[in-house]
Amino acid sequence: MDGDRITATIPDASAHQEQTRQLVRAMMALTGDTASGLAKAAGLTASTLNRFMHKPVRHTLSQRTMLALMTETFRRIKDRPLQSLSATALSALGPAIAVYEHGIVDLAPDVKPALQAAKSAVAASIRRQAPHLESAAPELPVLLATTCGVNISAADFTQAPLTTPRPPFLESDAGAFAILMPDQSMAPRFDAGDMLYVSPARALEGERLDVVVERKVGGSVIGTLVAITSDTVRIATLQPRMRQSFARDKVRGLYRIVGVQRLGG
Questions:
Q1: In tens digits, what is the pLDDT along the chain, a chain of 265 residues?
Q2: Beta partners for 256?
Q3: What does the alpha-carbon distance between residue 42 and residue 37 come to, in Å, rounded to a whole number?
Q4: Domain 6-12+137-261, second-level architecture
């Protein structure tokens, strides 16, 4: 938080669109199908998915759509040898497997062995690439916006109320954590119930900076970074469109949101 001023735009596009596209690309790589082909097989409108993947849009894919795509993917690969599948694509799909597993099994019970094998392969890959995580903190601490008794800046998460599987892109980030989006104040970018992945190690640089403001009195606030001055941190929300200011001497830390897993409807 050093420096005179950091500015950031407030875009309308969802901050987690690119992560969703990466998940769809991973499914395409595993199935060997195009976006439209995968959508048709999953009973979805092909043009909708194709437009999302290749055109600038102001929405992301719903949980229902992602569940349909994930289910179709595992239906396709359930009888294929694990070693024939792309390890990179499986790793990219790892966080989504943890979220949609129960829904997939409800729709397609016969794919459960393939899901378990994929989860084991992802975990083994993480252990090979970062063996220290087994003795460090393989689970990611999850905070609520109202959680007190933690000190994010000191990586003290002993009072975190929940944990979640650590996604591959945070496997070596010891200070990373997740926070549940509490309301619709950042819709359509984030919905209530979304799991936001946060990395204190990532620099506050570039555009589309969504952040978590850790207050010294306890609790956190989520918004888009507008500016940092010597005295003030300013963030913006979308619902309603407004800006909030926090005195810097009341702020313990400011941390960049680097990913999201849509958990809401």
A1: 444 444 333 333 444 577 788 889 999 999 999 999 999 999 988 888 888 898 887 777 887 888 999 999 999 999 999 889 988 888 888 777 877 888 899 999 999 999 988 888 877 775 665 554 444 446 899 999 988 889 998 888 988 888 888 888 888 888 999 999 988 899 888 888 889 999 998 888 877 799 999 999 989 999 999 999 989 999 999 999 999 999 999 999 999 999 988 754 4
A2: 199, 211
A3: 9
A4: Ribbon (2.10)
Whether 176 and 199 have beta carbons less than 8 Å apart is answered as yes
Residues 6+ apart with CB under 8 A from 193: 180, 181, 263, 264, 265
* Per-domain residue ranges of the chain: 6-12+137-261, 17-129
The single-letter DSSP state of residue 83 is: G
Amino acid at 242: M
Count of beta carbons in the 10 Å neighbourhood of residue 132: 12
Tokens of 164: 């979640």
| Strand-pair category, 232-238 with 139-143 | unpaired
Q: Reduced to 3 states, what is the DSSP secondary structure of residue 115?
A: helix
Report the alpha-carbon distance of residue 105 to residue 110 in Å, rounded. Answer: 7
End-to-end CA gap in the chain: 35
Q: How many CA atoms lie within 13 A of 36 on its CB side?
A: 5
pTM of the model: 0.53
